[in-house]
Amino acid sequence: MKFSYNWLKNYLDLKLPIEKLVEILNLYAFETELLPKNKDILEIKVPTNRIDAYCHLGIAREISNILNLKLNEPQITYPKSQERIKNYLKVETQEKKLARRYSAALVFNIKVKESPKWLKKRLISCGIRPINNIVDLTNYVMLETGQPLHAFDFNKLADFKNKKTIIVRLAKKGEKITTLENINYSLTGNELLISDFEKPLALAGIKGGIGSEIDNNTKNIVIEAANFEPLNIRETSKVLNLKTDASLRFENNLDPELTIFALKRFLTLLNEISQPPIKICKDFIDVYNLKEKPKVISVLPSKISKIAGFDFKKSEFEKYLKTVANKITIKNNNYLVEIKSFRRDLETVEDVSEELIRLKGLNNVVSSIPITSIKYPEVPKIVEFKLKIAEIFSRDFGFDEIASYSFIKEEDLTNWNLNKNNLIKLTTPASFGFNYLRPNLLIKILENISLNLKNFNEFKIFETGKIFKKENNLPIETLYLAGAIVSKNQENNFLQLKGYVEKLFEIFNIQNFAFKNGTDERFEEFLKILINNKELGILGNISNNYQKIYDLKTKAAYFELNLEELVKHCVSLKLFVPLLKFPKVKRDLSIWMPQNLTFSRVKKIIKNSSKLLREIKLFDSIKIDNRKSYSFHLEFFDETRTLTEEEVEQEMAKIANNLNKLNIEIR
User: Fold this and answer.
1) CATH annotation of 585-666
2) Region class of 510: left (phi > 0), else alpha (psi between -120 and 50), else beta
3) What is the secondary structure of 8-24 as a DSSP string?
4) For residue 483, which of 543, 530, 540, 552 has the smallest C-alpha distance?
5) Which ranges in the chain are annotated with CATH 3.50.40.10?
């Protein structure tokens, strides 16, 4: 935002060089630069919460507070006629919450002409193109006081009962308005308009319209100074893609107390640059719908000292408080500070303390190590659990971790037969078409598999992420773990994945888990994962239908677990087991399995057949003519001694004997 150094001198007795002022503003107020092509212009980056400093008077006030200089307020003097504005003009605000204040002045017998050189020079220096004396004065007052003004040709307003009437209302859906740049806008019905009984006159707080504009034939003018609800102005500006100097100020919560002061300043300047006989109505129209109560903040010096880390001198403390206060009442060393209305950013005692520290100067604050104990926040158990699982799957199991967006496409609803009513729809999607939050991790896992199959034939992936559902019409998000194994051997994928789930439960000492057969259209072979007879997850081979949808040329097995429920069953990690003192003895076992037996039952029979058998690992499986064959690595050992060949052969014989009882053929 551009500010003129010579203009600032109107309000302050500034004798320091402009380069020094830049240094001071950078140190005490806002980031400031001196424009290289014009040594009179300051480029100041005023934060949005400091709307009071969006004008020359506001910056002058800042400099006055920092350098302890007297602030010379703009002069307010102009002749008033005996005419009363209410005899000529009426203002009706239909949207009282959106039009917080609407003030207007009326001037007769004006002459539209070119502005004086000094006025044009100041506008140009701040990046505004001069138009004529009336429009230029409205822009000048905005740059000076921060209050946007708008001028209407009084004679162009529609008559109603022998009076001109201005109406502040919402647009009708589909209503059109043409702005001063001759651009047409079709309105949605949420925009605030200034209108008369026949036509819209302006987009409130944003831009004037054709139909009431000032031209060379204008003789009588209405000057508007209003205060509009910030959110409505911001939304209208965004929807119409129309940003103006006025909208920038209104959408950042402008002080409603500015309107009458700005009108008086306009009339003073108009009187100065006009030749008689202009006639100014003696009063104003002032519709103040939402009058704000003054903000009062309780400020204890001890509280300020605690926040700042040092003590202020009493004189210094009170001097800085006066810069933001209309009135200060002291009760038992408690300062009740009535905040000036234009300081919209000051809401709490912490805000006031920041202001005092800033005025003292951060460079004047002595650095010291805080005397306090630092306590690190406890890591929630679910977060620790999630991190540990990610470590196990990536480091121990050899999976690759993926991270997917939580949004799904409209077409996913059709592919997965999802009911919109059970999904959470985004009000403002981050990307076009991705309108819903995912109800499971499977959708994104399959998308990822489809992409990775272009480069790899076999891989293992997993993801920990949240899924989103509705319960009692309220959004619920739950943390899940999901993973997939992709390779040509479908049977092996399924059993391997089941083994990883079992190993995970073993690592976390999770007991009483089981796998139960079930049906799900998404899977061919499907198991429910139960703990204490409660379903916490699923495991299955992706069905041919979904393999076609995602163009998967290779078989894939998938599992998912509810981590938020699973963590409740996790007692502790499995304790460290010392390294073996005696060697393991390894054997391989291959079997043909009858169709009436499940894999888990056969594995259990093998395990229970020998007390010396400590590890069973599936390493191969084949299917020939509806017969299934499995091959296992078996590991035998004893913690107290080395096993002999004869002992191991005896254990293998026990296993074979138990398998033969169930008509299981050993290959």
Assistant:
1) 3.30.70.380
2) beta
3) HTTTS---S-HHHHHHH
4) 540
5) 85-288
As a whole-number percent, the residues of the chain with pLDDT over 90 amount to 72
Contact 607, 613 (CB under 8 A): yes
How many residues are given for the chain? 667
Task: Give CATH for domain 296-364.
Answer: 3.30.56.10
Q: How far, in Å, CA of 332 to CA of 315, rounded?
A: 17
Is the CB of residue 275 less than 8 Å from the CB of residue 262? no
Residue with token string 């059970």:
422
Dihedral sign, CA of 149, 154, 159, 160? positive
The CATH number that domain 85-288 falls under is 3.50.40.10
Label the pairing between strands 176-178 and 163-170: unpaired
For 381, phi and psi rounded to 5 degrees? -60, -40
d(Cα 68, Cα 242) in Å, to the nearest integer? 40
pLDDT 10s digits, 92-108: 999 999 999 999 999 99
In whole angstroms, give the CA distance from residue 166 to residue 170.
13
Q: Calculate the average pLDDT of the chain.
A: 91
Q: Which SS3 state, helix, strand or coil, does residue 58 take?
A: helix
Give the pLDDT of residue 506.
Answer: 86
Residues 477 and 305: their CA atoms lie apart, in Å, by 43
Confirm if 635 and 613 have CB atoms less than 8 A apart: yes
Q: Print burial letters for 364-402: b (CB count within 10 Å at least 16), e (below 16).
A: eeeeeeeeeeeeeeeeeeeeebbeebbebbeeeeebeeb
Would you state the structure tokens that stand for residue 481, as one six-digit string?
A: 């773990």
Give pLDDT tens digits for 185-233.
Answer: 999 999 999 999 999 999 999 999 999 999 999 999 999 999 999 999 9
**What's 140-163 look like in SS3?**
HHHHHHCCCEEEEEHHHCCEECCE
pTM over 0.85: no
Tell me: the pLDDT tens digits for 115-163? 999 999 999 999 999 999 999 999 999 999 999 999 999 999 998 888 8
Task: Report the distance separating Cα 297 and Cα 73, nearest Å.
Answer: 26
